Amino acid sequence: MPWFQEISLAAARANTIRRPERIGFFEGISTRSADDLLRSFAAAPVIDDPRAGRIDTEAAFLSYVAATRERANQQGGFNPIALTRTKGRSVEEVSIELAGDNPDLFVAIAADLVADGRIRGIRVYYSMWP
After folding, report:
1. CA distance linking residue 53 with residue 94, whole number of Å
2. Which end of the chain is less congested by CB atoms within 10 angstroms, N or C?
3. In 10 A of CB 66, how many CB atoms?
4. Could you list the residue range(s) of the whole structural domain that residue 7 is in?
């Protein structure tokens, strides 16, 4: 899960032993401000999403969050499937309940992390259930 749950406290906690809790990618997009999400990155935001292309500036990130939030609000919800974490990476798998009679959309979000847990970059992968 890429986002720090308590974004505003992340910088203060970075020097403590306990790391901030994290929340899921879509939960963060849906419930947090884009400015708060920016604080989860170690440097400029970098997201590779096949639907949006490469996001690598603050302005592009703000637009990406707004567009992704709008799409997310039109769907039936997000269901966590799995979370795999290592020291330098986390991979979150979720299913998105699409509106209408469409099958669920499955998404994997891979986040590369720096030593203090902030995000170096995110890659988003989509797959329809066969």
Report:
1. 20
2. C
3. 11
4. 3-11+19-128
